[in-house]
Amino acid sequence: MSAMEDTYVAEASGNLRRTIDWRGAFWVASGVPPLVLFSIGGIAGVGGNIAFAVWTLSILMGFIQSFTYAEIAGLFPNKSGGASVYGATAWLRYSKFIAPLSVWCNWFAWSPVLSLGCSIAAAYILNALAPIPGFTETSPEVVAYLAAHAGTSAADAVTAVTAAATPAIRSWTLYTHALGPVSFSLNATFWIGAVLMLITFAVQHRGILSTANVQKVVGLLVIVPLLIVGIVPILTGQINWANYSPFVPLAAAYAPAPGAWNIAGWTLVLGAMFIAAWSTYGFETAVCYTREFKNPETDTFKAIFYSGLLCVLLYILVPFTFQGVLGLNGMLATPIVDGSGVADALATMVGGGGIVKTLLIMLMILALLLAIMTAMAGSSRTLYQGSVDGWLPKYLSHVNDHGAPTRAMWTDLVFNLLLLAIAAADATSFFFILAVANCGYIIFNFLNLNAGWIHRIDNGHIKRPWRAPTWLITAGAVFAFVNAVFMGAGAKVWNPMALWAGLFTAALILPVFCFRHYVQDGGKFPDHMLDDLGMSESSLRERKAGALPYVTLIAGLIVVLIANWYFVL
């Protein structure tokens, strides 16, 4: 180890520590590929036969966009928190209120992975410990019920016998209530999910190096089987090529009837592209750990590039194979849509029996825990750096003796316990949370993809360890508006209130930022905030990009509103 690295590792308590290289960030980001399992059924439900193409286009867009993030991350070797923090600095010259919006939206986009992942993992554990029994019309119990209840139909008898034999814990809840467009429930799924969150917290409490080491082991246990599941059905000839045609949208969501390329069809497609972005773009979290890289100049680009290649492979391969084996009717089955039957489907695809199914259930739980750990690591560092830079309340800037931002982690945990109660209620509430979170993610991506060219204009003189080709920066800016179309048209596919709830949640940063900036800091930013750019707060008065950033913001809002008005179901 070099003398410089010795210094890094020995940094004083109270700061994040430089203890990992790009490989560590790669393994921390390895929780992104399993996110395909969160919504593979949901996207099939609105995308139909074109679902595999939606995943392919979405991950390719995400890969192209990542080059913008790789360049701007290199400008800030001493910051953590990811692309939103680096992009916020570009907008600071033009509005101190737009800049924190980027950080806030990225946090509330990523943070719900904890609650959503824990709800699915808890459902798997509940299914293993207290499964719902399966009866048919010929089951002895059903036959006996029919004999004792003359005139009852066979279907009603199956329902009655199943309800009577279902473990009470499946329907138990400490408290449940409806709240606007969603419900919440303190049921068994909630309590199991809460335990899983605490386990994740305990792993990350020991810092990023410990997290990366755990993620490496779990990542290998998850990624290798995912590759097997993606490849084996192709090699064994299980792919039914008829499952990819006709190449048209559905006539209506979650109904297998083919539709047409009309306004309603395009609306469903854009809804699928909207929700896919939440998963496929997620590997940008690999640049959340710049402040913890031993050599940020070289590690930053490698971390996001190789994480992106892994995601491109798995996000194309797994949805393609799923659709080829299961077909549209299989993809629309309730256990696939809500995620609880994905392990059964995986076992069928690799031709496994009961033991293989059990192993794949364990794989699913590990995959979800991997995604949860990735989300907590990235989102907590976004909160931490947002606090250090003066966007968010001061208490979030604390780290423990291991260099872990524990107060930010506790904030994540408490916030997600609230979301977990909603996600545990039903599938409608689950996808409402997902859609609202993704509104934040699209806003973050819009701001940061445009931050690429703003940094080029305002900070073009600053050395870039890695400089993206100009056409990639341009493509990213164009994709920012494409993403705006996805949000405007697609959010309502998942819930009529999702877009407006997302915009409302984004606006909550205004009172939070005003409290930090004007009450806690007296209207001034911390002196160190702009150190990486060699600037002071007085330098912010120079706006080389002129009115272009404002025009961009107005144009983005107009695109969202027009898309929301034009595309209807």
UniProtKB/TrEMBL annotation:
Signal peptide: none annotated. It holds the Pfam family AA_permease_2. The chain crosses the membrane at residues 25-44, 50-70, 103-126, 184-205, 217-239, 259-283, 303-322, 359-378, 417-447, 468-491, 497-519, 547-567. One of its GO terms (cellular component) is plasma membrane. It is a multi-pass membrane protein. Its main location: membrane. The keyword Transmembrane helix applies. Keywords: Cell membrane, Membrane, Transmembrane, Transmembrane helix. This is Amino acid permease. It comes from Mesorhizobium hungaricum.
